[in-house]
Design a protein that fits this description.
Rossmann fold, 13 strands, alpha/beta, 3-stranded parallel sheet
Length: 391
């Protein structure tokens, strides 16, 4: 049966990340759910959330949140999410279930309910040394199960599709690449008055470069700091860091201290007042921060997609990013590409964007034009076509 505008479906989602995750998986989930509900209002969207959320609210006339019921399911909410939720799916007459982040419930294939799973990346397979060995085994088992038993797989980039085929030997024709969108608030122009309010709230400098992402080795903040050291004598503009980490963050801070560039790297999460701001934790203030920056620097060694790159393009913010993995897919012609292993190339990019006005304007415009390929309605349409193919 082909799904068209007038055909009604009950669509269920694994909504754990949508309600509880403030980084990439959460942003992906919330953006997609909102885009589907807005562009395909004839359907009903059921969000299966393992526990109440105090971080994010997802509302809409055709959006319904479902929490576990009964003592056992409430107590063992992870078990409910990974297995027992199938009973609730049947009770709600769910036609199709979408695992938004690598997983589907065990036993859903036998229930008769169609399923789709989104795979964001297989970084744990490529860089197992950066994870706890037990976690690598758990991730591999869950993702492999989802890829084998889901009716259809959505990969968020060609890089991720290739990895699914290479690591798990899944047939290519079972996988569809659906490029994601990001929160539409990044596309809205922020007034100078509003930007000044945010600058004061976060005690931001007048001019700064920006890094957004978890502080882990793969995302490569250390080489940005090495580029800052290279430019230490002739470029005093600081780097503002949005994100947090543990061991790798300590390593980066040690380098910063040893090389005397403490005043040039600002970790917003180190300020308890900032870290506790609801508008910081939900990213509501990020568009103003993006639009106040000189450029986004994102020299990651490997990504499933790299959503900060797209957020920057939508914000008309020049981007310096890596020439490897899927990042050229995310940045298109609107980014300045560097070898992530080369602090020298990062430094050259920083200087070019800062001092070559025509160059900065050119990549801003190219980036904005390329970002139109990732509008929420396009993402929703591509995902709905996948749903259509399995119903």
């Amino acid at each position: 049966m082909r799904v068209d505008y007038f055909c009604f479906m009950n669509i269920g989602f694994d909504a754990k990340r949508a309600f509880h995750n403030g980084t990439g998986l959460g942003h992906y989930s919330r953006s997609l759910i909102h885009a589907l509900a807005e562009n395909y209002p004839q359907h009903q969207y059921w969000l299966f959330n393992p526990r109440p959320s105090h971080s994010f609210s997802i509302k809409g006339e055709n959006i319904h949140e479902i929490l576990p019921s009964g003592l056992i399911n409430k107590t063992f909410s992870s078990l409910w999410r990974s297995r027992n939720v199938v009973k609730d799916l049947k009770q709600k007459n769910i036609n199709l279930y979408h695992g938004l982040s690598h997983e589907i419930p065990v036993g859903i294939a036998a229930s008769g309910i169609k399923s789709v799973v989104t795979i964001h990346d297989l970084i744990h397979e490529r860089y197992p040394e950066q994870y706890n060995p037990i976690d690598v085994k758990i991730y591999s088992k869950k993702i492999r199960y989802a890829c084998l038993h889901a009716d259809r797989i959505i990969a968020i980039s060609m890089q991720t599709k290739k990895d699914i085929v290479d690591f798990y030997k899944i047939p290519e024709d079972k996988i569809t690449v659906c490029y994601q969108s990001c929160n539409p608030i990044f596309a809205k122009t922020i007034s100078e008055e509003a930007k000044q309010i945010i600058k004061k709230r976060y005690n931001l400098p007048d001019h700064f470069f920006l890094y957004v992402g978890s502080l882990i080795e793969r995302k490569n903040l250390l080489n940005i700091c090495k580029a800052i050291k290279i430019l230490k004598d002739d470029l005093k503009i600081p780097l503002v860091v949005i994100g947090d980490g543990k061991k790798y963050k300590d390593e980066v801070k040690k380098y910063i201290l040893q090389n005397g560039i403490q005043q040039q790297v600002i970790f917003l999460s180190d300020d308890p007042e900032i870290a506790s701001l609801p508008s910081y934790r939900s990213a509501a203030d990020f568009p103003a921060i993006y639009q106040s920056a000189i450029a986004m620097i994102y020299p990651s060694y490997f990504e499933g997609f790299g959503i900060p790159v797209l957020e920057a393009l939508w914000s008309r913010l020049p981007v310096i990013t890596s020439n490897v993995s899927c990042l050229p897919e995310a940045g298109g012609p609107g980014a300045y590409y560097i070898n992530p292993a080369s602090p020298e190339e990062i430094a050259v990019g920083m200087k070019r964007i800062l001092y070559e006005n025509d160059f900065g304007k050119e990549i801003k415009e190219k980036g904005w034009q390329y970002a139109q390929n990732f509008m929420p309605q396009k993402h929703a349409e591509s995902v709905m076509q996948v749903y259509d193919s399995v119903i």
